[in-house]
Structures are given as C-alpha cells and as structure tokens.
Design brief:
Layout lengths: L2 E2 L5 H8 L4 E2 L1 H4 L7 E6 L5 H12 L6 E7 L10 H7 E3 H4 L4 E6 L15 H14 E7 L1 H11 L4 E15 L13 E11 L2 H5 L4 E7 L3 E7 L4 E4 L9 H11 L25 H17 L18
Length: 312
C-alpha cells in the first residue's frame, strides 16, 4: 500500500522514480480503510534529503500511511528553501491537538551542545511530553535518541573525542523481539555521531532493553517493554552517499576527519562506497510500523490519552 504525502512534495518524484507508490489526498480519500497517521519531526538542516530517506523506509509496508511533516520552529533552515517549509511543513502548534499512531524524530547536528543550550530545547521537551499523550509509538534517531534518554530517564551522553563514523557490524541480542524479526544474526548499520551511552546504562533503566548492539559502536536499538519508545543510535535511513558527503564536507572545512569505517572498499575514498545496510534498515522500520504501531494502536486514536505513561 502507498504512503500519502503532500502533493508536489519533491520527494514524490524521487520515490516514483524508484517505483515506490505514493498517493495524493484526493485518491487517499477514496480508500475505505483507516490509514496509519505518522508524523515526522525533521530536525535535520537538509530537510528534503532527510524526507526522501525516511519516506523511502516507510514505503515498504502493506499499510497505508498518512504522513505529516512537522517543524520545531519557524526559523529558516539551513540548506532548505523557506518556500519548501511553508508549503509542506506543519508548525507543531498546528498538529498539537492531533493523535498519531507513530512519530519519527530525526537526528540533528547538535553534537557538542548541551541539551539545555539548544535553541529549541524547551519546545523539544514540550513535544517529547506531548508524544506521551498523543502518539502510540515514537522512533527516535541518533541525536533524538540521546535527547529523549536525557529527558525521560536523566541519562547524560558522553562525548567521544573522535567522531564515530562508518558502517559497523552489529549483533542481534534479542532474536524474539519483533523489531528484529527477519534480521540476520549479524548485520550492518551506519553511525555518524559523537555522543555515546554505554549499553549497561541503557539496561539499568527499568523497562528498557538493548536488542541490538555493536562491539565497536555500542548499543544500536533500544526498546521499551511497552513498545511506546524505540531508540536507534545510528542512521538506518542513510543513502549510499550520505556518509561520503559528510566526509567531504568535513574535509573541505579543514576538520581532517577519519575515513568512515568499513564504508569505502580498501578504505579508499576515491572508490564508490559499499552499501550493505539498506535491507536491515528497511526491515527495522517496517517491523516498527507493524509490531510497535499497527498491532498495538487503538482503532480510535482518541483512546491514546489513556495510554500516557509517567516519565521519571
């Protein structure tokens, strides 16, 4: 089944070129089913690139999904035209009364800022608390995963001296967890971050379980027992060249970044990257939609209020 996205969203042409089925509002109105309502809080500067990456992951499911793109403030984003934001994004205040089956919160390039120093941190806290009452299950990616751990559980990340960048080997730790259904025992996933929280720290929080991890990159997928929160410390959504573009950007800025691990053949940046994470990235999001969202969400989304859980 298709994903429903705003008409004329640039991602639509990209997805159609990949034979991914999308539909506009008129056609969706004639579908005699209750589609899933999914919000995407996009914190990345390049909104369009991130939209395509996440919508691609959402498309690989038999479920019909209505997607709302949400922005956290009205400031002009870096690398994205203001006209695009005005045409396709909702201010949080416009959706604050709405209930969602699922919410995805992206990463953000805020590695070295304390959370409370982030200009939109107060709004971020409001949205995190709002999701407790208005969203069945929330998927937090990279920076957002660490930010949510800090807010909900008081867990402070540590900052690495060097950036964790590359494609790392991971192990399935809980093969019975639905998020990992169909996963190979060993799989690969991209990481691009400075922040780090040890696996035993996640495990020390009541109700949380590390279900996939890497010997080099640490905890990768952490899930709450009630399926309301999923923390993913890496980037299953990344395109083939995303790490390459980051490496080239940092090199051009004179930062002398290390070559991303296990990414280029023979660690040679002149060679095309070796892509080996797409299938598991797609499966992770599909499993989240199926088992953590669709299988648990009430038919009447107004019933979500009774599912609100206390934080720390």
């Amino acid at each position: 089944m298709p994903i429903r996205i705003p008409e004329q969203l640039p991602a639509q042409d990209v997805l159609l070129g990949e034979n991914i089925f999308t539909m506009d509002s008129d056609r969706a109105a004639h579908q005699d089913i209750r589609p899933l309502e999914v919000g995407i809080l996009n914190l990345m500067p390049n909104k369009i690139e991130t939209e395509v990456q996440i919508l691609r992951l959402l498309s690989n499911t038999p479920l019909q999904i209505n997607v709302d793109l949400i922005r956290i403030d009205n400031q002009a984003p870096k690398n994205t035209p203001q006209s695009h934001m005005d045409a396709f994004y909702h201010d949080f205040s416009q959706v604050a009364e709405k209930k969602y089956d699922g919410l995805i919160v992206t990463g953000a390039p805020l590695a070295h800022l304390q959370y409370t120093k982030v200009k939109y941190w107060d709004t971020m806290v409001t949205i995190l608390e709002w999701a407790q009452r208005h969203v069945q299950s929330t998927l937090y990616l990279c920076w957002a995963a660490h930010a949510a751990m800090y807010h909900f559980h008081g867990v402070q990340r540590k900052l690495r001296e060097d950036k964790l960048s590359g494609v790392y080997e991971h192990q399935v730790l809980d093969p019975n967890n639905e998020l990992l259904r169909g996963f190979d025992p060993v799989f690969y996933a991209p990481h691009s971050r400075y922040g780090h929280i040890r696996s035993d720290v996640y495990e020390s929080v009541p109700g949380l379980r590390v279900v996939a991890a890497s010997a080099e990159a640490g905890a990768y997928v952490i899930a709450s027992e009630d399926k309301r929160r999923v923390f993913v410390t890496g980037h299953p959504e990344y395109d083939a060249l995303t790490l390459h573009d980051e490496y080239q950007r940092d090199t051009a800025a004179g930062q002398q970044p290390a070559v991303p691990v296990n990414y280029y053949p023979n660690d040679d940046p002149s060679l095309p990257p070796l892509v080996r994470w797409r299938s598991h990235g797609s499966l992770l999001v599909t499993n989240w939609l199926n088992y953590y969202v669709y299988q648990t969400t009430p038919y009447d989304l107004e019933q979500l209020a009774s599912k609100a859980q206390p934080t720390r």
